[in-house]
Amino acid sequence: MDALRHTFEQRLAAALPGVDITLERPKSGELGDLAFPCFRAGKQLGKNPVQLSQELAASIAIEGAQLVAAGPYLNLKLTAETRAKAVLGAILEAAPERPYGFRPANGKKVIVEYSSPNIAKLFTIGHLRSTMIGHALAQTHQALGYDVIRLNHLGDWGTQFGTLLAAYTRWAQDGNADLERDFDWAEPAPDKRRTPLFRLFQLYVRFHAEEENDPAMRDEARGWFKRLEAGDAEARRLWSWFREISLKEFQRIYDRLGVSFDTLAQGEAFYEDRLVPTMQRLEDAGLLVEGDKGARIINLEDVGISTPCLVQKGDGTSIYATRDLAAALYRKEAYGFDRCLYVVGTDQVLHFQQIFAVLDKLDPWFKGRMLHTPFGMVKLPEGKMSTRKGNVIFLEDVLDEARERVAAIIDEKNPELADKAEVAEMLGMGAVVFFDAMNDRVKPITFTWDRVIALDGDTGPYVQYAHARIMSVLRKAGGDWAAKAQPGACVGPVVPFEPAALPADLVGLEAPEAQALLFELAGLPGAMTAVVEGCMATPLARQLVAVARSFSGYYTNCPILAPENTPTVRDARLALCVATARALRQGLFLMGIQAPEEM
Ligand code: ARG
């Protein structure tokens, strides 16, 4: 397909010297494979775009394709066989270091910062968004040839640790919540409600509840944070212990989600000894101004941001923004990136506007490199989720519930299935993760169990089902057909398929349903590019649904293993099955979803 695109671009460039050639994808494969909209060229040349497209259709010729003028569009429509060769060729030649859609020689360095939970809190359904959007962005960037660094700006420093220290020292030793004594720390607790982290979380919630009626407690919490920043031994000891038990718990969840980071050691606390030099740089640049009660602020009115950026509180302690500034400066030094993406909720839009504006003032190098990709918050039907108030939906509860619902269906419909538990986990996860991706990134999501764990319609399990159905056809076909669609052990960002040979003759794929499937498969690289450009997994999720749906049409209308098929037709149709299975598996994998062989 790339070669044909290139030829088309060259012919257009030759016919239209000096005109910018940008190709699009037509709405359906019946219209064609590539479209050249003639509006801009028409304007530039002072010609009616409809007339221009007709002239071009008459004057350009490309072997294996037809050029069709459709109003102001010039469409390139491949013949059935050329389309099959181009699409199947691209998918089947993909190799571990060259996945389908890969663009060589990009080499740009991108930092994707995602997940970034606060320690001593539990993972909620809200954290799934940052984690899985970020994971899909990291995966897809890497599959497209970017050099990717995956960072987690763990919330392991800040005033909330004052709260936690105050709560812990107040109550934890009262016999009923002696965390250090009650738990065997080496063993992960079987019941998640009894994990040490959950107990810490309860203390945190209790503190916030009681603090409402006792404002003095607020000072107590502040005092503890000051002690922590000042290096007080007891505060440090407890803090690092809180951190350790949190990390253990997070790691368990990341393992379950199949998500990993280059390091978990670059959380907020990592920047502690870089805060003074950062403040010094701000001072030297003449940006610091005295704010209320001795606080230090940076005015941003001149760049259209009316709220100043607070970088130091009156009591001399650092804040969230200070640590983000230090982190950005560090990342420039350590990685020298081209882009740094922050996958963080819409509630922090102002924060990142401020941070980026300060960085621009400090060092023009940052201009245009920093990008906040906000996502909509998950709400409950009754309102906002709040860890402080304790009304949250825990991520693990959602994943467990999804797995159980799937298991019940498997028990009913396919009780003989091998690896039932494993498949139920993959499908449950597929439902939850895919649901998230199908939502517009920035709109808020209202959580209800039935929406988030939907198994019918445009869901992960629907796509997973298409894949499993193909695998079953390939197994039935015998020979090495199934093996051609099976990857080696998954390492790196994509499913490592070995290149497979294309059948010599691709006949038997002329039916509109086969052509429609080829057209949707050809849309996957563009969907991957759209993920990177729009910083969301939605285009990929949608394209996978389109592929799965058109596979269903193909399967119904083009018998694959029918005895009357000639061997040539059978091989061509099986090759299309292999390519579809590979493409679905790769796409799901980029989103962090596994594709079972059978379900
Ligand atoms: N820990 C923060 C929170 O839970 C998110 C951190 C986002 N990243 C950043 N560089 N500020 O709200």
- Compute the number of strand runs: 13
Distance between the termini: 33 Å
Which ligands does the model contain, each kind named once? arginine
Look at the structure and name the CATH superfamily of one domain: HUPs
Shape: globular
CATH topology of one domain: Rossmann fold
**Largest beta sheet: strand ordering:** 5-4-9-10
Strand content: 5-15%
DSSP helix count? Answer: 22
Name of the CATH first level of one domain? Alpha Beta
Query: What is the C-alpha radius of gyration, as a whole number of Å?
Result: 28 Å
- In the CATH hierarchy, the architecture of one domain is 3-Layer(aba) Sandwich
Mean of residue pLDDT values: 92
SS-based class: alpha/beta
Helix share of residues?
40-55%
Q: Uncertain spans, ≥5 residues at pLDDT below 50?
A: 183-190
The profile of the biggest β sheet is: 4 strands, parallel
Helix and strand arrangement:
Layout lengths: L1 H14 L18 E4 L1 H7 L3 H11 L5 E6 L2 E6 L1 H13 L16 E5 L11 H19 L3 E5 L7 H14 L6 H4 L13 H16 L4 H15 L2 H25 L17 H10 L3 E3 L5 E3 L10 E4 L7 H16 L3 E4 L6 H14 L7 E3 L5 E3 L2 E2 L10 H19 L6 H19 L6 E2 L2 H4 L7 H18 L3 H4 L27 H11 L1 H11 L3 H20 L9 H25 L8
Parallel strand pairs: 4-5, 4-9, 9-10, 11-13
Antiparallel strand pairs: 1-3, 2-3, 6-7, 7-8, 11-12
Helix pairs in contact: 4-19, 4-22, 5-20, 6-8, 6-9, 9-10, 11-12, 12-13, 14-15, 17-21, 17-22, 19-21, 19-22, 20-21, 21-22
Bound molecules: arginine.
